[in-house]
User: Fold this.
Amino acid sequence: MGRHVLDHASSGEDGAALPRFTEEERKKGVKGPHPATKTLQQRKREKSSESARVQAYARIERGQKE
Assistant:
């Protein structure tokens, strides 16, 4: 009885396929993300009021004053 497929040592060619595939995708595929997606990625993140509230409660819990 032979070994299971997953028990065999992997060949070095398996890892080389992914970079070739992604390079082809870049060449032939979409020319980048959708403009709306690009805008969202470049937009500055704003701190939420929830975050400020949690920080204030944590400071109070630690016994620190402003």
Remarks:
- Residues 60 and 66 are 9 Å apart (CA to CA).
- The two ends are 72 Å apart (CA to CA).
